[in-house]
From TrEMBL:
Protein name according to UniProt: Probable serine/threonine-protein kinase PBL21
Gene that this sequence comes from: LOC101511134
PANTHER family: OS07G0668900 PROTEIN (PTHR47985), SERINE_THREONINE-PROTEIN KINASE PBL21-RELATED (PTHR47985:SF3)
Residues involved in ATP binding: K105
SMART domains: S_TKc (SM00220)
Taxonomic path: Eukaryota, Viridiplantae, Streptophyta, Embryophyta, Tracheophyta
Keywords of the record: ATP-binding, Cell membrane, Kinase, Lipoprotein, Membrane, Nucleotide-binding, Serine/threonine-protein kinase, Transferase
GO CC term (a single one): pollen tube tip
Organism: Cicer arietinum (Chickpea)
Amino acid sequence: MSCFSCYVSRRKKDVSRVEVDNGSRSASTAGNGGTNATERKKECFSEAKGKNARNGQSSTPAASFGFRELAAATRGFKEANLIGEGGFGRVYKGRLSTGEVVAVKQLSHDGRQGFQEFVTEVLMLSLLHHSNLVKLIGYCTDGDQRLLVYEYMPMGSLEDHLFDLTQDKEPLSWSSRMKIAVGAARGLEYLHCKADPPVIYRDLKSANILLDNDFNPKLSDFGLAKLGPVGDNTHVSTRVMGTYGYCAPEYAMSGKLTLKSDIYSFGVVLLELITGRRAIDSSKRPGEQNLVSWSRPYFSDRRKFVHMADPLLQGLFPVRCLHQAIAITAMCLQEQPKFRPLIGDIVVALEYLASQNIPETHRHGVRSPQLQSPSKMDRN
Ligand SMILES: Nc1ncnc2c1ncn2[C@@H]1O[C@H](COP(=O)(O)OP(=O)(O)OP(=O)(O)O)[C@@H](O)[C@H]1O
Ligand SMILES: [Mg+2]
């Protein structure tokens, strides 16, 4: 987005996380409509009591590991065990002495911000427990080493399954995409509605949605998450941190962070799921590099909706569901935060879309016998 006056890339990879220092931290009031979702939020708060057991996650505290233990688990941080790398550092697959398979993230020694993110990540994931949030198993603070130990997510990130697919990967079917959207929305609903005080995630993107063997999604990376707003406040002011292409425009420009900033980022992820295009893709021609800008002209004409769909779907989706998914996405991407929906309403709408029985193109790499040609699909 052009609204960033300056940004500092923390990434070794192509996608840039941005940091713009815009001064003081404060809290103040702004509009936040939506009666239906407000009611749901009240329900959420009452449900929150005794929540962790029902969320399918135990709230076992994160364990403290010694560096030697984690070096042994990853066989000396062997290159062969390297499963990814982000702005924070490298991620290795490992096996603890208990036999548990884990992902070990090692903070690279290149700045203080990473250390702050480390502390926030440990605090947040020690307090937050939900089946759609990745589980923090432990951490290591030996000497100047900072490592995080997570449950291992065997299918990697959503980003790995949407873009630049290698030959061994099947494109995600429409129903898998809807399932992932619902799970990610439920994770966000937990942060916004069930956590008390609410948590603004601030780093929602396809690289931070990790997948288990059944493509159940879990949100990861809470190093940028912020508590609040509380009481009558609807925003906190803070330095602008996030990932280029996913940040809400008002947050990028003013540093005013609200729950609606996350809704905008969620809209960008929905758009990636629908189109199979990256939020920012510098390999595309000018005008197509920023996904949200590219999509705006399509939003205003329903007849063009079908042209937004990822070509890898090969037309195998119910057109009515596609239309509804695009309508939800467009609402999330409203320029004005007050017009964006609350997460509770998004969960309800996506659950409905995900419940629509449609033929699967691929299930575990096997073609479904019910497969219909695109012309036979629902075209309402
Ligand atoms: N718990 C995990 N289980 C399996 N793979 C993981 C896990 N955590 C991270 N990874 C892999 O490591 C990659 C890098 O993750 P990481 O969170 O460090 O960076 P990122 O989210 O891609 O970018 P950044 O942190 O700079 O915003 C992920 O894309 C994913 O493939
Ligand atoms: Mg990440």
